[in-house]
Amino acid sequence: MNDFDWQAKKLMTQCPELPVSTGHDDLLKTINALFAPLNLEFSLVLERSGWHRLGGVVDIDMQPVASNLRVWAEEESDGDVDTLLDKYAGQPMFATRLEGRTLYFTAPTGDRPEHFLQLEIEISQEVLDRPLFDPEFMPDNIEEFLDPIDFPRLEPEVIGQPRYAFRRLHKMLDIFLEQNPHSRHVQNLNRFMQDWHDSSAGQNEDVPFCSRWVMVLQEYQGSDKESHFNIKPVPTFTQPLKDFEPELHGSRLAQTIHAFDRWVGYPFAWFFLMINRKGVPVEVADAVLRDQMEAYDYLPARDLKILREWEKRPYSV
């Protein structure tokens, strides 16, 4: 095990022991203390919420019966849901779920936009989900018991304290190199990264790519039976985007896009958010290109070159 993997293993052990706090300062200090010997410094760049997973089992007094509903059900049923019902259907027990958020920490490692480390830490909170059994609902199999449809749900009463859990840590360059170069999505993704590198946004060393974007990874098993990832760029800018006024052009359009870029935090931001389909309509690009034909000159040459290439071969990620 190399030093990088060893520090990641230490972090995996320490995460659940840290108290969850607003701002996550203690967590960030722990991360950077662990990776300082490797000359790495992480920043918290994004917090995403909205996921949930199966939780465990609690009794009528909210005392834990099992921490993992699936494992408990499979062990108690021996694969037969009727066995489970015969054992426990008369007992007042409840299923819980884990409501979660994911924290994204990044650390730049080189000059290219894909040269960075991405660390994901999850925050999970166990809440009450549903009665474990209902006489009006008789599942046909274990899967239907674990995740029933149209089952009466309860108010999500909080059970216990929120907890940190290490999810994964990746060298993003390795993830990019593992992608299928013949995939249209991967080709567009590589073009997106190259456009960043060549644009005004890519010239500012104080604002690395990984401070403005994270890569949401969706794991899947390929035909080779190995784990692979689909990649989706997600901006770290989370404020609702302002609408662009229709039919802007000339100096007003120049002022609008420059103000937009300053607000988001880096040059040419409107273009990259447009490519990512995050609220900037393609009509803005069309208007900018028309202005350039009319001798307006408010885009840096490197950005105009990228925009004209997009006009010839539009793409999105």
Strand order of the largest sheet: 2-1-3-4-5
Residue share in helices?
25-40%
Give the distance, in angstroms, between the N- and C-terminal Cα atoms.
35 Å
The ordered string of helix (H) and strand (E) elements is: HHEEHHEEHEHHHEEHHHH
What's the helix count?
12
Query: By helix and strand content, what is the structural category?
Result: alpha+beta
Main β-sheet: number of strands, strand sense, barrel status? 5 strands, antiparallel
Count of domain modules: 2
Portion in beta strands? 15-25%
Number of strands: 7
The general outline is elongated
Mean pLDDT over the full residue set: 93
Contiguous low-pLDDT stretches (5 residues minimum) are none
Radius of gyration (Å)? 25 Å
Task: Provide a quick synopsis of the model.
By secondary structure, the chain is α+β, with helices and mostly antiparallel strands. It has helices spanning 3-14, 25-35, 69-77, 81-88, 142-146, 172-177, 184-198, 209-212, 250-264, 269-275, 282-293, 301-312, and strands at residues 43-59, 64-66, 93-108, 116-131, 163-171, 213-221, 227-235.
Task: Offer a few descriptive terms.
about 25% strand, five-stranded antiparallel beta sheet, alpha+beta, about 325 residues, 2 domains
Can you walk me through this structure?
With 317 residues, this protein is an alpha+beta fold. It folds into two domains: 3-170, no CATH class; 178-317, no CATH class. It has helices at residues 3-14, 25-35, 69-77, 81-88, 142-146, 172-177, 184-198, 209-212, 250-264, 269-275, 282-293, 301-312; strands spanning 43-59, 64-66, 93-108, 116-131, 163-171, 213-221, 227-235. It has a five-stranded antiparallel beta sheet with strand order 2-1-3-4-5. A two-stranded antiparallel sheet has the order 6-7. The model has no long low-confidence stretch (mean pLDDT 93).
